[in-house]
Write a structure and sequence with these properties.
The protein has helices at 9-20, 54-59, 61-67; strands at 40-46, 71-77. By secondary structure, the protein is of the alpha+beta class. The relative contact order is 0.17.
Length: 81
């Protein structure tokens, strides 16, 4: 898979310009995650049209059950209109 993340347009413009000039670009994504408790927090982004993650979602039920009270899960559904 290809890792991806969103940037504000003004932050992305220098990267786009460098890529258009056929310059190699290296970026590092770093952030701090607050840990208010000892739970694992995770999100899943998907869409109804994404048949590739359907199997993952079904298989992940075992992990969800094992994590039970030790995790906080937030699902996200992307709709393309």
């Amino acid at each position: 898979s290809i890792a991806s993340f969103l940037l504000f347009k003004e932050d992305a413009q220098p990267l786009i310009a460098a890529l258009r000039d056929d310059t190699h670009v290296r970026a590092q994504m770093s952030f701090s995650v607050p840990a208010p408790d000892s739970r694992v927090e995770y999100d899943l982004w998907t869409s109804p049209a994404d048949s590739l993650t359907r199997e993952l979602q079904e298989d992940f039920q075992t992990a969800v059950a094992a994590l039970s009270d030790h995790a906080y899960f937030t699902p996200h559904m992307c709709e393309f209109i």
